[in-house]
Amino acid sequence: MSENQIAIQQPATPDEDEINLLDLLIVLAKHKKRIIGATFVAALLAVGYALSLPNIYTGSTKILPPQQSQSSASAMLSQLGGLAGMAGSSLGIKNPNDLYVAMLKSRSLMEKIAKRFDLQKVYKQETLTGTMNALEGSTVISSGKDGVITVEVSDKDPQLAANIANAFIEELNKLLQTYSLTDASQKRTFFEQQLMQAKNKLTDAELKLDKTPNTSLQYLDALRNLKYQEALWEILARQFEMAKLDEAKDFPLIQVLDKATPPEKKSKPKRSMIVLLATLVAFFLAVIWAFIKEALARSNDDPEQAVRLSELRELLRWNRR
Q: Who has greater pLDDT, 51 or 215?
């Protein structure tokens, strides 16, 4: 045979290690009983576990917090507009609702709710800290883009879940009323002091005017001072009366859009989802086990693969020397 002779090429044989769809189906068919059995057992266990879980109900309430100041004096001061906006920016408050969400999540407010419903006994906690953590884990407080704040409380008792959700709003309202009353009292005290000083200055201006001849320049100055003191006293008197009204007011600070009612349907657990996920996981694990078992069986039939498999087992031993 010459060097230029073209050698007849033998047809290529398929690689022995190549896995095709038929091989996969054969492996699945070979171990079908164990795959189906393991999946069925896992499904039964998942059903038993899902049925053992208690129903959890979620009470939900929605509120619209005050979008502007409720105080009459503050309403007059808000006419400054730009200055008020600069003050808000300097405080770093981008969304006013964040303040109310923070107050709802505050420890002081949650402590009041925990003591109000004796949640330490309900949650079977030994410490107040544990009770607070349990309450926090059962509560979701969020603020939407529409400005509405939602409070959701989950519990085994639907009535208790609704009551606690409503209690969050009631305690927030009390907290805001306390802060508002303190602010109104401070304003009333401030204007009262300023009014007394203005009244004294007005009296002094009247006495000075009476003692000044009406033909002199000092008389004109005294008259202008008297009119100024009268105008100042009138302004402070109006502010003082408005501050007293603000202090005496009793009005709701927040608007309840949806009050929490005992939910009729459970929110969790999702039993069908638990069973479905457990069944799928068990099925895939059984399939993986079948392929691993088949691969090990084929390796034992091949002397070279058997040696390599024995070496791998030796390397995986923890107490090897």
A: 51
**Which CATH superfamily is 57-191+252-258 part of?**
FepE-like (3.30.1890.10)
The whole-chain average pLDDT of the chain stands at 79
- What are the tens digits of pLDDT across the range 282-309? 999 999 998 888 877 777 666 666 676 6
In single-letter form, the type of residue at position 44 comes to: L
Can you tell me the distance from the alpha carbon of 208 to that of 222, in angstroms, rounded to the nearest whole number? Answer: 7
For tokens 């998942």, the residue is: 46
Cross-strand partners of 140: 152
Tell me the pLDDT tens digit for each residue of 154-195.
999 999 999 999 999 999 888 877 766 566 677 778 888 888
Q: Rounded to whole angstroms, what are the CA distances from 101 to 105, 214, 251?
A: 6, 65, 21
* Burial (Cβ within 10 Å: 0-12, 13-18, ≥19) of residue 3: exposed
CB atoms within 10 A of CB 172: 21
**Domains of the chain: which residue ranges?**
21-52+269-313, 57-191+252-258
Residue 205 has phi, psi (to 5 degrees) of -65, -35
Identify which of 195, 189, 225 has the alpha carbon closest to the alpha carbon of residue 209.
225
Q: How far apart are the first and last CA of the chain?
A: 58
